[in-house]
Amino acid sequence: MRRRKLLVLLFMSFIVSVKAQTTADGIKALDYENYATARRIFSQLVKSQPDNALNYYYLGIVYCNLGKIDSARMVFTAGTQADPKSIYNYVGLGRTFLEQNNAQQANQYFDKAKSLTTQKDITQYKLIADAYSSAAHPNYDMAVTLLKKAIEYNNKDAEVYWILGKTYEAMNKSGDAVSAYERATELNPSYANSFTHIGVIWRNARNLNLSKESFDKALQADPNFPPAYRELAEFYFYTGKYDLATQTYQKYLEIADKDDETQFRYAKFLFVIKKYQDAINILNKLRGKISSPILYRLLGYSYYEIGNYQEGISHLDTFFQKTDSSKIIPSDYEYLGKLQIKTGMDSIGFLTIQKAILLDSTKYELYDTIATYLYKQKKFDKAGEFYEKKLRAMPSNVPFQQKANSLFQEGKTFYYAHNYLKCDSIFMILAKLSPQWPYSYLFRARCQLFIDSLDTVRSKAFPFYNLFLSKAYADTIHFKAELAETYQYLGNYNTHYKNYGVGLYYFNKVIEMNGGNADVIATVKWIKENYKTQPGNPIPATKDTTGFLIPAIINGHSLTPLYDPGLMGIGVTQEGSSQLIVTGSDGENTKGVIVKVGDHSLKNVAVTIVPDQKQPVAIGPDVLNKMNIVFDYPSSSLLQR
Fold it and tell me: Does the model's pTM come out above 0.70?
C-alpha cells in the first residue's frame, strides 16, 4: 500500500514538474539559446495544450534555429490546423520557404497571416519582419520597412526595437543597431539580449569600455543569461585576459544546455582562442550530429592552422559543397586559397585568394600571401606584380609605415627581377615619403649601376651612394655590408677620376670594415706608391637644422654653403644667384665658377639653379672630391688629402 502511495506521489510530482513548464519558460530557453531545453518544453506543451498556436510556433522556430526546416514546416502546419485563425504559424510556414529561398511561396503565407488580422495589429509586422531578418535568405530592407510601420502604430513595444536592432546589425549598420537596442532596453530594462548585442557591437568596434559596460548591464538584467557569458569570454580573449576568458566560458558551459549545439559553440570559441587541436577534437565528434556547414568551415580553418593542409582542403571542399553560395565569406576563399597553395595548386590558389579580396577590399594584405610565395620561388616579376596590386588596393589613409613597408617589398622584388627602371621609380617615391631612410638611396644607387651601364664609371650611382652614406654612416651594425659596398664604389669612382686622396680614404674605410678584398688592397698599394701628397689639416664643418655647413670662397665671396650629398656641382637658389655667386649665368647651367675650400681650389665648377634647396648655396661631394677633399661624417670635418 505504501509503495502504491509512493508511486502516486512520484507520478504527481512528475505531473507538477510538467505543468511547471510554461510557454514563457520555453521562450526564455529560446532566448538563452538553449534549444534542446526549448524543444523539450514546447514539445511537451504541444501535447498538453494542443489548441495553443503559440507553442507550435515557438517549437517551429526552435527547429528553424537548429536548421531542421522540414521538421519546422510540419510543426507550423500542425499549428495552423490547431488554430486556423492564429497568424503565428502561417508566418512560420512563410519563414520555412524563405529558408529555402522561395520568396514567392513565403509571401503567400504572409498574406494569409495578414488577412487574419487588422492593419493596426503590430504583431503581424513583428513576426513577418523577424522572418525576413532571421531566415537563411533574408530581406533586411523589407524587415526594416515592416518594423517602421509597426513603430508608426506603437513606438513603445520593446520587441519591435529588438528585432530592428538585429536587422540593422545584420546589415552592418552598427550605429542604427545600437540605437534600436538601446530603445529596446529603455522600454524593457530586463532585455539582457539587447545589452549583449550592444556589447558585441562595441567589442567589434574596439570600444572596450562601452563593450564591457554593456556586458555588465546584460548580466545585471539577467545573471543567468548564457549568451552574455559567451560573448564576455570572447571580450576577455580579445583584450588579452586569457584566464578570465576561460573562466567566463566555463561559466557559460555550466548554465547552457549540455547538448551538441553547446559543444559546437565551444569548438568555435576554442578556434577563436587558437586552441585548434582541441577544436578539431570536438568538431570531429560532432560530424553527423550538427547539420551546419560551418562545422566543416571550422575544421578546414583549424587543420590549416596546425599544418595539416590535406585534411584542411578536404573539409573546406566539403564546406563549399554543402553551403549556400550566399553564405560564403571572404575568409573562406582566403583559407581555401592558402590551402591550395600549400598543396601544390598554386595558380588556382592565387585566383581563390583574389576572390576573397574581391568580396572584401579591406583584405588587400592577402596579395602579400601570393607575392611572398612567388618571391620565395624566385619568380620575382610575378611577385612584383602582386605587390603592385596590393599598393593599388591600399586606401589612401593607411598608416605611413604600412605603405612604406609595402613599397620597399615591391621595389626590392623588381630589383631582383632586373626591372631596374621600375625599381628606381619606386624607391624615388619612398625617398620622398621617408627622406631619412637609407635603403631608398642604396637601391637607387644599385639600380643606376645597371641603368647607366654604358658609362664605365657608373657615375649616375654616385649621388645616391653619397646619400646612403650620409644617412647610414653611424650604423655599422645594421649596415656593415652595405656601407662597405658604398665605400668601395666611392673609392673606385674617385680613383678613376684621379682623386687619389679621396679614393684612398674610402678604400681604407672598406679595409676597416671587412679587411678589404684583393682588388681594394691592390689599389690601395698602388695609390700609396704613386700618390705622395700628405693629408692636410681638417676643416671643421658646422651643423644647423638644414645640415652640415662648410666654409668656402666662391668667386671671391666668403660663404658657408650647405653640404648636399646628392648634389653634383654647386646648386643655387634665385637668392643665391642674385648674390653674384654666378656671373654671366644663363639661368640653367653655368661654368666659370672658382671655388676654394681650405688650401684647395677648383675652376670651372658647374652651377645649377635648384629652387627648392634648403640654403641659397649648396655644394656637392664631387666638387670637394675633385679638390681631393672628403667629407668625414664621424668627425664632422673636411679632410684635405
Answer: no
d(CA 567, CA 201): 56
The rounded distance, in Å, linking the Cα atoms of 350 and 358 is 12
Cell numbers at 252, concatenated: 557559460
User: Of 10-19, 218-227, 253-262, 571-580, which one has max mean pLDDT?
Assistant: 218-227
325: how many CB neighbours lie within 10 A of its CB?
6
What contacts 506, CB < 8 A, 6 or more positions away?
487, 488, 490, 491, 494, 630
HSE (CB half, 13 Å, CA atoms) of 278?
Answer: 12
Q: In this structure, are residues 189 and 221 in contact, taking their beta carbons and an 8 Å threshold?
A: yes
Domains present along the chain, CATH in parentheses: 16-226 (1.25.40.10), 539-640 (2.40.70.10)
Alpha carbons 256 and 258: distance in angstroms, whole number: 6
d(CA 113, CA 88): 7
Eight-class DSSP state of 84 = T
In the sheet with 629-632, reading across from the earlier edge strand, the strands are: 539-540, 637-640, 629-632
Distance CA 408, CA 382 (A): 16
Per-residue pLDDT of 235-285, as tens digits, reads 999 999 999 999 999 999 999 998 898 999 899 999 999 999 999 999 999
Strands 552-554, 637-640: pairing kind: unpaired
- In 10 A of CB 368, how many CB atoms? 17
Nearest of 532, 565, 566 to residue 632 by alpha carbon: 565
- Contacts of 20 by beta carbon, 8 Å cutoff, 6+ apart: none
Measured distance CA(258)–CA(269) in Å, rounded: 16
Q: What is the pLDDT of residues 346-368, one digit of tens each?
A: 999 999 999 999 999 889 889 98
Q: How far apart are the first and last CA of the chain?
A: 124
Report DSSP state, residue 436: T
| Cα 620 versus chain centre, distance | 43
Contact 61, 68 (CB under 8 A): no
Compute CA distances 98 → 81, 134, 156, whole Å. Answer: 21, 9, 29
Nearest CA-CA partner of 473 in 505, 501, 499: 505
CB atoms within 10 A of CB 356: 22
CA distance 81 to 75: 10
What is the largest distance, in Å, between two alpha-carbon atoms of the chain? 133
